[in-house]
Amino acid sequence: MAIEYLGLNSVNGPFVVLEGVKGAAYDEIVEIVADGKEKKLGRIVEINEDKAVVQVFEGTDNLSLKNTHTRLTGHPMEIGLTDQLLGRTFNGIGAPIDNLGEVAAEKYADVNGKPLNPVSREYPRNYIRTGISAIDGLTTLIRGQKLPIFSGNGLPHDQLAAQIVRQASLGDNSDEKFAVVFAAMGVKYDVAEYFRHTFAESGVSDHVVMFLNLANDPVVERLITPKVALTVAEYLAFEKHMHILVILTDMTSFAEAMREVSSSKGEIPSRKGYPGYLYSELATIYERAGIVEGIDGSVTQIPILTMPNDDITHPIPDLTGYITEGQIVLDRALHGQGVYPPVNVLPSLSRLMKDGIGEGYTRADHQAVANQLFSSYAKVGDARALASVIGEDELSALDKKYLAFGKKFEKYFVGQREDENRTIIDTLEIGWSLLRMLPREELDRVDTKILDEYYDKQGRVLE
């Protein structure tokens, strides 16, 4: 039975305090009605004897101490679930904002989710094709993986996220069901409209569920958005047997919202002012990815975060790196040279890549090509450093070949158009065209049999 209370004890930032509360539970959802008109939602974040501290999602504006009705619902934050969510757009707490009416839910689920039993987890295998060579070729995304993108302010991570949503698939020969859950936190209105229009114009909206928390929406709402999105993803994956790709942008906005709310609660700050439980909160979100044994479905995550001052040792990318299985790093210098997407392949890696590529998955030579491209591009850095000291004219013939390889690698392999959707075969063929620029004896990461098969073949001409 729901209990209703009249009046508030105090209002402080996004929090209100109720006194004389009985039977309240942590994380319970509260309905607040101000002056009999405006209805808001909140959740209980602290209970002390008969006092309850309520976090108000829509903010505490227009709430009076005397004429506010508060009703305890008796359940945590829930979202209505159905496969009709595909093609719909919601705000940060799951309310429809696409003028298509309410969703007729088949069931309701707690947005906090339930932890997956580690014993029932299945090892990630098959790859997800993004159509982007720097990802598919060198940092391959595997179903059930969590692979973050480390970006910076002003870098084109929004365009990259939109391109991944438009192009992502399970491969040309797959007949399995695939969908995308896209959650944006703290984005500007024009960025949100860019995502909406891009998905609508490219015709992918019908297999995308969007959650948009705008920059002018309440900060508290931002803390719920990724949990709501992942609850929908888990439902579609584990109950509707679909393969779901979840894109979360921008996790830095989520962490800063957490810092702001933590400060309002008067908690003791940790590194850079973030709360001490930042790691566990991020882990709670990232670990909601994977494959459950015996179920034909998977949840794969691409969290996107902007590194403050491009600092990869900042607490957000630092802790994210501990929890996830690799990272894709965007580079400001490449962006300045006009390379899109500006992926710096040397600090980027996918720890699960080796188990989802090769014969039976992509192509037998994939791992060898990736290893050799990494190795050769690392030598480009040495040649460039030497050229900056002694001048390019004084370099050896081999070093000059590495310089030429580096330029074409950045232009043709890393670089591609925003509307260019490459198959894995296209990516590998471009890789071989680049490797043929180097003497055969330099390709020491490729097996002789593979070299015999591909090195002397006529490939794509790179001008």
Automatic annotation (TrEMBL):
Where does the record place the ATP synthase A/B type C-terminal domain? 355-455
In which family does this protein belong, per the annotation?
Belongs to the ATPase alpha/beta chains family.
Q: Which GO terms describe its molecular function?
A: ATP binding; proton-transporting ATP synthase activity, rotational mechanism; proton-transporting ATPase activity, rotational mechanism
Pinpoint the ATPase F1/V1/A1 complex alpha/beta subunit N-terminal domain residues: 10-65
Protein's UniProt name: V-type ATP synthase beta chain
A biological process (GO) of this protein is:
proton motive force-driven plasma membrane ATP synthesis
The ATPase F1/V1/A1 complex alpha/beta subunit nucleotide-binding domain extends over: 131-350
Q: Respond yes or no to whether keyword Nucleotide-binding is given for this record.
A: no
**Keyword set, alphabetical order:** ATP synthesis, Hydrogen ion transport, Ion transport, Transport
What is the protein's species of origin? Gallintestinimicrobium propionicum
The family database entries (PROSITE patterns) matched by this protein are listed as:
ATPASE_ALPHA_BETA (PS00152)
Relate the protein's function as given in its record.
Answer: Produces ATP from ADP in the presence of a proton gradient across the membrane. The V-type beta chain is a regulatory subunit.
Pfam families in the record: ATP-synt_ab, ATP-synt_ab_N, ATP-synt_VA_C
